[in-house]
Each structure stands twice: as structure tokens, then as C-alpha cells.
């Protein structure tokens, strides 16, 4: 398995993989145009040309970014793919000089194993007022906010 930056030809497979989780409310639907416009944010797990996972690093401010759109192909969960994607995303954030990364998740224990801590959503006003207000679950969000302070790149 190879973790790599997404390329334009990955946009349709990324959308198809994300859409597998939209009906359960695990991720928000993303249009193909949104994916093309943000393709540079994505990392993919590629196994012999098949996308088995995807993750995005969305920058909110000079020192704040979000891990989002993290999904692994159904049936491939618990194989370390998600961990590899998040670790690659965190390394990119460190190299960019980002100080804090957060995620909204239904799996806070997964993120805790990677060093994240649970935080109150009120600590993330950029996210709340930039994205959450557009969500059908706002203001009754049932996701858990997690955050990680990053150290400088080695």
C-alpha cells in the first residue's frame, strides 16, 4: 500500500469512496466540483491502483488545520490504513508549520490513539462558523471534537 498525494484522476474514486459513508452520516456529501477544487488537500491510500482510503487536510488559519473526509474502503477497516493516512497528513501539517490539528469524529478513540485529546467545539470557532453552520445537524452536532498540538518537523 502506498500513501500518496491525490491527483486529478483520483477525484471520481475519492467521491465514490466518500459517498459509501454519506448515507450513515459518517461524512458529509462532497460534490465532484468540491473535490476537484480541493484535490491538493487529499492523501490517498493506493493499493495496486485501487483507492482503499482517503483523508484530507483542510487549512482554517495560519496555525490551524482539520483532518477530514477520512474513510477506508468498507471491509478494510482495522487494517492500519486510516492510521497511515492520518500520520501522513499530520506530517504534512508539521512541514507546513501548522501548530494545531483537529477533527470532528464519531471515533474519538481512534484519534486518541494517535495523540489527540477531546476538546469542546467552542475552541474551534473557525470550523463552527465556517462549516458547521451549513450542516443539517447544526447546532445539535453529535460528533466529538478532538485536537492535537504539533511539534516542529524533524
Characterise this structure.
There is one protein chain. With 154 residues, this protein is α+β, with helices and mostly antiparallel strands. It has helices spanning 11-19, 32-37, 81-96, 108-113, 125-130, and strands spanning 2-5, 42-47, 50-61, 64-72, 100-105, 117-119, 144-149. It has one domain (2-149): 3-Layer(aba) Sandwich (Aminopeptidase). The protein contains 5 helices and 7 strands; from the N terminus they run E-H-H-E-E-E-H-E-H-E-H-E. It has a 7-stranded mixed beta sheet, with helices on both faces. Strand 4, helix 3 (81-96) and strand 5 (100-105) form a beta-alpha-beta unit. The chain is globular. 27% of the residues are buried.
Short summary of the structure?
By secondary structure, this protein is of the alpha+beta class. The protein has helices spanning 11-19, 32-37, 81-96, 108-113, 125-130, and strands at residues 2-5, 42-47, 50-61, 64-72, 100-105, 117-119, 144-149.
CATH class, named Alpha Beta
Terminal CA distance: 24 Å
User: What proportion strand?
Assistant: 25-35%
The helix content is 25-40%
Number of strands: 7
What is the H/E string? EHHEEEHEHEHE
User: How many domains in all?
Assistant: 1
Low-confidence runs of at least 5 consecutive residues: none
Bulk shape? globular
What is the annotated CATH architecture? 3-Layer(aba) Sandwich
User: Radius of gyration from the CA trace?
Assistant: 15 Å
